[in-house]
Amino acid sequence: MVMAYDMYDVIVIGGGPAGENAAAYAIAGSDRTAALVERNLVGGECSYWACIPSKALLRPGHVLDSARSMPGVREQLSSQTLDFEAVLSRRDAFVSHHNDSSQIKWANNNGIDIIRGAGRLAGERLVEVGDQVLRARHAVVLATGTTASVPDVPGLRAALPWTSRDATNMHELPKRVVIVGGGVVACECATWLAALGAEEVIMLVRGKSLLPKAEAFVGEMVAAGLRSNGVEILFSTSPKGVVRPEVRDTGEGWIHGGPVTVDLGHETLTTDEIVVAAGRAPSTHELGLATVGLTDGGYVGVDDHMTVLRSGNDWLYAVGDVNGRSPLTHMGKYQARVCGDVIAARSEKRALEGSRYCATADLQQVPQVIFTAPEVASVGLTESAAASDGFDVTTVELDIAVAGSSLLRNKYKGHAKLVINNHTQCLLGATFVGPEVGELIHAATIAVVGEVPLDKLWHAVPAFPTVSEVWLRLLEALRDQ
């Protein structure tokens, strides 16, 4: 018996930003067809449970802190605090109240069919979604992302701890919170919980610093900022056991039962909720990878065309967090653009000539902003990473103290560092810490990706009076070394 298939040129499993971009680019300007398979909401983790809601929760605290630092404004604020319900209302508007109809409309307007359900590979170019079987003429793209990991600590899973999804979509504010982790999610979560009025926020950090992959001063400054807002940080500390006698599955973002007791070995903590921000794992366990000769459960390795690393394979691709190269939304979308262009070229039997068909920036030129207080913005390699990769480097760093930063807010505190390749005299990396430094990082990204020599950067004159004038101070300090 011949099996009946629903045929598409391109099938994408996973409807987040990376999946959406891959589908759109693969069929752009053509009569090719595409299907986007999504089990939850089209728009994915970023739109509803990560980037968008977290930044919506963080921004009001940044604005209030900035206002309190400004004479003429702070006097009008008195002891004003954030309006919790108003902050949540704005967040809910940004996540469209978990209604993905606008995303579906976008997809349909771009010639992409939405198929609801859990997609899995069923053989070469085959995808199963429930009882439906899809077949791809040209490509299948995996864009299933990652899910939050919960450490194997006695009693922790049974306590139904909050993960990032609960924390970004909270409906009530726990007065006492323990956060397990010291990375980006943990630091941002501690920032907004403190700003929104949590009375006790305690971070349990397994290592000796926050944000350990960043330059050393980053973790120190973020820790100082958190402590100034009442957050307690316990380094070299991990939970040994968790007990929650009155546990209830109350739903996402609601406190999951009664008080939680956390055993640290030498002491115990009692808290209203525990948030686990201890890493993520690829969503590939039920993806059917074994049907095409791959190993279920791990990251899906790819080459720079985003083609899955497997002999004789030119139809299977993986973009975004699921391939493990760079777990950031903007880098997943970047990979997806490359992937879509590659699929389009191969389907039209065009040669993959030109840099647009190879992803390179997601390896050593990645920009990132961490929206703590102070903010962290970085791109490329740290000094330590550059040394590990065998580069001969020079570094320059200084406090951000220019007219623009002083005008931005009283008692501005910031720091900047550049990592320079001695062989090429181009930037390998840049890191900025301070209020609103996120808006500085694209200039650094252009310098790193474009391999702009230092001699050229002297002629990139920063406007006065802006915080960007720190670029001139950095170049002067480098000249004087």
UniProtKB/TrEMBL annotation:
It comes from the Bacteria. InterPro entries: Class-I_Pyr_Nuc-Dis_Oxidored (IPR050151), FAD/NAD-bd_sf (IPR036188), FAD/NAD-binding_dom (IPR023753), FAD/NAD-linked_Rdtase_dimer_sf (IPR016156), Pyr_nuc-diS_OxRdtase (IPR001100), Pyr_nucl-diS_OxRdtase_dimer (IPR004099). The keyword Nucleotide-binding applies. GO terms for biological process: 2-oxoglutarate metabolic process. Its cofactor is FAD. FAD binds at residues 55, 119, 321. Residues 8-333 form the FAD/NAD(P)-binding domain. Disulfide bonds join 46-51. GO terms for molecular function: dihydrolipoyl dehydrogenase (NADH) activity; flavin adenine dinucleotide binding. Residues 366-471 form the Pyridine nucleotide-disulphide oxidoreductase dimerisation domain. Keywords: FAD, Flavoprotein, NAD, Nucleotide-binding. It holds the Pfam family Pyr_redox_2. Binds 1 FAD per subunit. The keyword Protein transport does not apply. Coiled coil: none annotated. NAD(+) binds at residues 181-188, 279. Belongs to the class-I pyridine nucleotide-disulfide oxidoreductase family. This is Oxidoreductase. It comes from Hoyosella rhizosphaerae. The lineage of its organism: Bacteria, Bacillati, Actinomycetota, Actinomycetes, Mycobacteriales.
